[in-house]
Amino acid sequence: MAENLVKLQAAVKNLDQISESEKSGFISLVSRYLSGEAQEIEWSKIRTPTEEVVVPYETLAPLSEDLGSTKNLLDKLAVLKLNGGLGTTMGCTGPKSVIEVRNGLTFLDLIVIQIESLNNKYGCNVPLLLMNSFNTHDDTLKIVEKYSNSNIEIHTFNQSQYPRLVVEDFEPLPSKGHAGKDGWYPPGHGDVFPSLYNSGKLDALLSQGKEYIFVANSDNLGAIVDLKILNHLVNHQNEYCMEVTPKTLADVKGGTLISYEDRVQLLEIAQVPNEHVDEFKSIEKFKIFNTNNLWVNLQAVKRLVEADALKMEIIPNPKEVDGIKVLQLETAAGAAIRFFDNAIGINVPRSRFLPVKATSDLLLVQSDLYDLADGFVVRNKSRANLENPSVDLGPEFKKVGDFLRRFKSIPSIIDLDSLKVSGDVWFGSSIVLKGKVVIRAKPDLKLELPDNVTLENKEISSEDDI
Question: Which of these, 303, 230, 182, 261, lies nearest to 72 by C-alpha position?
Answer without folding.
Answer: 230
